[in-house]
Amino acid sequence: MNRKIIPALLASAVTASACTIPTDPLDNNIAYPFRAQVQNATRPEVHNKYMNLFEAGGGDRHLFIGPVGVPTYDLTLVDGVINHVPDGVRAVIGGEIDHTTKMFMTGRGDPRAIFKPTYACNPDTDALQIELRFVTWQDQPTGGHICVRSSFEESHEFRYYPPGNTLVDPNRECIKVTLVVIPTTDLPPQTSTTLSTSTIPATSTTTTSTRTSTATSTPSSAPFVDLTSSGFRFVGCAPEERWTTDGAFRTLPDASTSTDTNTNAACAAFCTAGGFKYAGTEWSRECWCGKAVVATRWPATTLASLEGCNFRCTGDEGEICGGDARLSLYEKCDSGEACENVVFT
Ligand SMILES: *[C@@H]1O[C@H](CO)[C@@H](O)[C@H](O)[C@H]1NC(C)=O
């Protein structure tokens, strides 16, 4: 590494000690394997933790720090985009928009999160480190930053905080973090028990089996449960908000809850108690209710449309509770009419 000293910088910006920042620009490609560490020295609950990959539906990987997901030692940077080649995924931004937007990894064409490798000094040790400074996401204005916010099982999930964001929820703080490249010279064996899937909820496995099942019967692997005897029919896998241009934030905007005991029946009961006609489960643990479905979000009746609903319920691994930005949508049957699930073809 070619480390050139900048005397002026050292003299002016530095009090006691500071690492020497090389002047040679860093390439936007990092071919050696690395871990991604998050830093925010004022926030010990996230400081120096590592980005884990959590297997989600459709081959996607969601990004967490804390006990959720699998420690990942072999990330690379390709044209400023974080890649995990073994899974064929790269970091993108989109989906699950509320006050911030999700950053996750996928093989699909969602807008990439673009980073610029930049030398900096470690806030604790003063050692030279390479940070991944957030630049933009494809086709979007530059600016904003990456942050992490509290999620299930004491974890934090990665989010993108847009520039000039006014949609701040004081109860759902998103902690601004610096992403740091930690080169992994000695790769631990990827099959060791420390890298097992023990911390991954059941959503991580067997998603393919649920995606091929038909909707005309309801074995445990079918993407919905038959609630007709309790007055709800399954109407499909409805899209949730995906892009800021989607209009309405939520497909079922009127009430919601998030629990470790989520099932479709429990959600239907929750929404019934609130007097709502529609109940939808999402993201394993969420239950959403609506008086109506936002018009542009009505689900299709094709088998293919069910594929996005592939997360298992927190309260019952045998059931599907929506997916990533997808609701397993149930509708209260009108009294007097036959209560039948939609048939998917
Ligand atoms: C740490 O997080 C707080 C809250 O998001 C933020 O205001 C602060 O700028 C962050 N510090 C760094 C160094 O990123």
From TrEMBL:
<protein>
    <submittedName>
        <fullName>WSC domain-containing protein</fullName>
    </submittedName>
</protein>
<keyword id="KW-0325">Glycoprotein</keyword>
<dbReference type="InterPro" id="IPR057231">
    <property type="entry name" value="DUF7909"/>
</dbReference>
<dbReference type="InterPro" id="IPR051836">
    <property type="entry name" value="Kremen_rcpt"/>
</dbReference>
<keyword id="KW-1133">Transmembrane helix</keyword>
<dbReference type="InterPro" id="IPR002889">
    <property type="entry name" value="WSC_carb-bd"/>
</dbReference>
<keyword id="KW-0812">Transmembrane</keyword>
<feature type="domain" description="WSC">
    <location>
        <begin position="231"/>
        <end position="333"/>
    </location>
</feature>
<feature type="region of interest" description="Disordered">
    <location>
        <begin position="188"/>
        <end position="220"/>
    </location>
</feature>
<dbReference type="Pfam" id="PF01822">
    <property type="entry name" value="WSC"/>
</dbReference>
<dbReference type="Pfam" id="PF25486">
    <property type="entry name" value="DUF7909"/>
</dbReference>
<keyword id="KW-0472">Membrane</keyword>
<feature type="signal peptide">
    <location>
        <begin position="1"/>
        <end position="18"/>
    </location>
</feature>
<dbReference type="GO" id="GO:0005886">
    <property type="term" value="C:plasma membrane"/>
</dbReference>
<keyword id="KW-0732">Signal</keyword>
